[in-house]
């Protein structure tokens, strides 16, 4: 036969352990969220400053952001698109792979392709950093919710 006071104490200990686990999970989620927000922001800043250091300006005949300095994903994408238009125009619509190996335009189209790839890499980097910041924000909110819930609940009832 089990003593009632022993089973009640055991349930209270389990509740307290669960309460602490949830609370610590909340704190760790907040910490992870802050780290992800900061890391995403740092990456965004580094990519932006590296692009700015190149002094790239969106071509004046671009559909989007003509004349703007390339420092963000939107201007990088605009410049990549206009580079493609210029390359296709100069090669009469042919891509690098479609041009004859002896065609003097092949080097120009190849350089345009490399430039576009570099700009697309920066666009992807901006996207990943934005994603990290968004996930960090959600981790922080979920962690804050867990901490807030454990503050309202009594340790023996969670």
From TrEMBL:
It comes from the Bacteria. Keywords: Membrane, Transmembrane, Transmembrane helix. This is Aromatic ring-opening dioxygenase LigA. The chain crosses the membrane at residues 21-47, 123-149.
């Amino acid at each position: 036969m089990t003593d009632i006071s022993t089973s009640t104490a055991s349930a209270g200990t389990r509740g307290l352990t669960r309460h602490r686990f949830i609370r610590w999970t909340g704190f760790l989620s907040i910490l992870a969220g802050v780290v992800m927000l900061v890391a995403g922001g740092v990456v965004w800043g580094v990519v932006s400053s590296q692009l700015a250091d190149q002094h790239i300006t969106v071509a004046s005949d671009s559909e989007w952001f003509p004349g703007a300095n390339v420092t963000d994903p939107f201007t990088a994408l605009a410049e990549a698109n206009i580079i493609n238009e210029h390359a296709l125009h100069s090669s009469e619509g042919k891509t690098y792979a479609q041009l004859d190996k002896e065609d003097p335009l092949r080097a120009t189209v190849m350089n345009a392709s490399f430039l576009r790839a570099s700009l697309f890499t920066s666009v992807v980097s901006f996207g990943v950093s934005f994603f990290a910041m968004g996930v960090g924000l959600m981790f922080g909110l979920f962690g804050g919710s867990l901490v807030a819930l454990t503050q309202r609940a009594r340790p023996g009832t969670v």
